[in-house]
Amino acid sequence: MPPPPSRIFLMRHAQSGWAMPGQTDFDRRLDGQGQAEALAVSRRAADAGFRPELVLCSTAQRCRETADAFLSAFGHPPDIVYCDDLYNAPPAAYFDRLSQHRGHASILLIGHNPAMEEILETLAGMRTAAEAVPDGYPTAGFAVLTHVGDIAEEGWALTAFLRS
Predict the structure, then answer these.
(1) Which domain holds residue 65?
(2) What's the 3-state SS for 16-56?
(3) Cβ neighbours around 133 below 10 Å, total
(4) Which residues, including other chains, have CB under 8 Å from residue 50's CB and lie 6 or more apart?
(5) In 3D, which of 44, 48, 39, 59 has the Cα closest to residue 7?
(6) At residue 152, does pLDDT exceed 60?
(7) Continuous segment of H or E residues that includes residue 10
(8) What is the C-alpha to C-alpha distance for residues 95 and 51, in angstroms, rounded to an integer?
(9) Whose CA is closest to 123, among 149, 146, 151?
(10) Of 67, 94, 63, 86, which is closest to residue 78 (Cα–Cα)?
(11) Per-residue pLDDT tens for 14-25?
(12) Is 13 a member of any domain?
């Protein structure tokens, strides 16, 4: 079995507007602030060298637009896989997706809360997560988790957290 990634990035979609009449939650778009958030955080991630090998992204419109901003921050964007099963999914769905892509050195998950916050808590620990995001996982929040310890262990450290 290939090793797990040595780095996992978690990005919550940027701020979206309310659903328009007749529009579903799935189709909500980023609002102006969300577009600015996504681009600002993505540029900071690129400037810091936080380039994933692979992006796994919810197919919800607001996640796709967040991914577009992220990919635009890189000269040669990483590969991306859009995943229907990550829309409003529990953390287990994200972990299942990660396990399907073992062997990549670094993976970015772009998705929704509360899953992003719960994944951060699971990997980095409740205390670390509470210190990093005391008011909850912000829109366009970007966590950098680095694998620590023996490959057989599932030890992760939060090494950076970017926000707009």
Answers:
(1) 7-162
(2) ECCCCCCCCHHHCCECHHHHHHHHHHHHHHHHCCCCCCEEE
(3) 21
(4) 9, 142, 144, 160, 162
(5) 48
(6) no
(7) strand 7-12
(8) 20
(9) 146
(10) 67
(11) 999 998 888 899
(12) yes
Q: What is the DSSP string of 100-128?
A: HTTT-SEEEEEE-TTHHHHHHHHHH-HHH
By CB neighbour count within 10 A (0-12 exposed, 13-18 middle, 19+ buried), where does 157 fall?
middle
Token pair recorded at residue 29: 């778009």
Q: How far apart are CA 154 and CA 23, in angstroms?
A: 41
| pTM exceeds cut of 0.90 | yes
CATH of the domain at 157: 3.40.50.1240
Structure tokens given for 59? 């197919």
* Mean of pLDDT values over 113-121: 97
Whether the Cβ atoms of residue 66 and residue 80 lie closer than 8 Å to each other: no
Question: For residue 126, what are the contacts with CB-CB under 8 A and spacing of at least 6?
Answer: none
Residue 2 lies in a domain: no
Instruction: Give the Cα separation of 24 and 47 in Å (integer).
Output: 35
Helices (H) and strands (E) in the chain, counts: 5, 6
